[in-house]
DNA sequence: CGCATTAATTGTAAAATAAACACTTAAATT
DNA sequence: AATTTAAGTGTTTATTTTACAATTAATGCG
């Protein structure tokens, strides 16, 4: 078999920035690294790409190892290729961000992989350039969420408007007028109001909504402006 | 030195989708591949990442080889990692798109590298998955240009409003009302009207403008809406 | 030299969208 | 029954976007 024999070959890794939302707080899934180098330090979930799998397959495999979940919302973000980003051996990392419903497996996670949900506001020091990856991921979901309805991926199938607003406010680090917010969100036609309420958050209770999946998939690429002033994305 | 000894290593390539605009037509810079496999077939400009350079450095090096230019607008786009995208040996390609002022070196290009400017509407069959890269690049610049003033990178330092409008219309494959277009563009405050005219395109001549570089760099991240209906980005 | 041609330039009114703003209501608790 | 707490809801104003066509500058031709 013909080969490009003179060329250097590189280690390829995939790193996943996994976001979750518990109805109150935006969180990242981090692990205590189980092997050297940087054993026991906080890290994103990552792993080496195998010879037989594509990048997307690698990302999905790694995410499944971490969370047990398949079919998670996963999007390639950026490839990090500074020559000395891994002190042991040069490794190029293809980063992905994932948005998952935190409730779907709050438990199995930490048991199997020493993983933990950490509030985005209190991310510890991370290994290598993972800090930089997290920063870019925050920026990326803000950017994308300003234009597309991706944040629903973070919510359970039934959710309330106050929860949704809370999520948007967390992602954009802004407070939004609730009258205008509900107008905008409902105007998308993406939400179906259910007849029962979530009584957990208040005495009165808040009506549950669910996504109109038809419209959700149809309009996913469309621009949907939920955020008042997109200039908040500037950073 | 410690190594991740058990892991597979991969060839890493960089491929550049280079856009140019001659005042009339949007074009891509393509080359006739000089080596096997697929010798003499049309291809994007690419090359293998070297052991001592970062991904960005590789992209800049390759772009310089092709165009002789440095300091070109270059942005990492996406990493392609299907296992058999290169039939010879598995290669992961990190793609970049570049926006250049076509006039800066219309000539030296084709001489040195068998490169040619090809109208975007008439791209020939390309090797490997380069077709897919081009499609993604078209989509990416459309997306980005709808929100940020990147298209100025395609224009010479002095340009006219009709040229600029033509560029936007080419990128978005749409026609825009010229009164509304000039209002929007001028409202950004990014343009400085010069006192002389370009007499090439019409009898009356069109005034030259240049970028206010201060504002350009300051507002680059800001959202600038020049495109009437961003839903045209849906595809 | 005036006339015809061609593309550049410019403004306004109507419609749509976004922003600002506060009271009422449902349900649980005391 | 009264109190507490958060959910739910509408209107007015301001801003932005859209639709739409006549005038002007310069050239070349008769």
TrEMBL record, chains A, B:
Keywords: Hydrolase. InterPro entries: NUDIX_hydrolase-like_dom_sf, NUDIX_hydrolase_dom, WH-like_DNA-bd_sf, WH_DNA-bd_sf, WHD_NrtR. Residues 9-142 form the Nudix hydrolase domain. The keyword Hydrolase applies. Pfam families: NUDIX (PF00293), WHD_NrtR (PF21906). One of its GO terms (molecular function) is hydrolase activity. This is NUDIX hydrolase. It comes from Mucilaginibacter psychrotolerans.
């Amino acid at each position: 078999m013909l080969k490009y024999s003179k060329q250097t070959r590189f280690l390829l890794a995939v790193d996943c920035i996994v976001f979750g939302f518990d109805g109150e707080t935006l969180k990242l899934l981090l692990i205590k690294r189980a092997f050297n180098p940087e054993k026991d330090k906080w890290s994103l979930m990552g792993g080496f790409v195998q010879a037989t799998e594509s990048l997307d397959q690698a990302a999905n495999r790694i995410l499944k190892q971490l969370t047990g979940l398949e079919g998670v919302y996963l999007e390639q973000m950026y490839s990090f290729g500074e020559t000395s980003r891994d002190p042991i051996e040069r490794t190029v990392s293809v980063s992905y961000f994932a948005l998952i419903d935190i409730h779907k497996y709050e438990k199995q996670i930490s048991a199997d992989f020493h993983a933990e949900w950490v509030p985005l506001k209190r991310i510890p020091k991370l290994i290598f350039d993972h800090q930089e990856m997290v920063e870019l991921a925050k920026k990326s979901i803000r950017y994308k969420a300003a234009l597309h309805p991706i944040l629903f991926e973070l919510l359970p199938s039934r959710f309330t408007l106050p929860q949704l607003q809370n999520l948007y406010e967390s992602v954009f680090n802004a407070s939004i007028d609730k009258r205008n917010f509900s107008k905008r969100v409902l105007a998308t036609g993406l939400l179906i109001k259910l007849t029962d309420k979530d009584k957990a958050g208040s005495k009165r209770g808040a009506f549950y909504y669910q996504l109109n999946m038809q419209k959700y998939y149809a309009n996913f690429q469309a621009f949907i402006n939920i955020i008042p002033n997109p200039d908040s994305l500037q950073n």
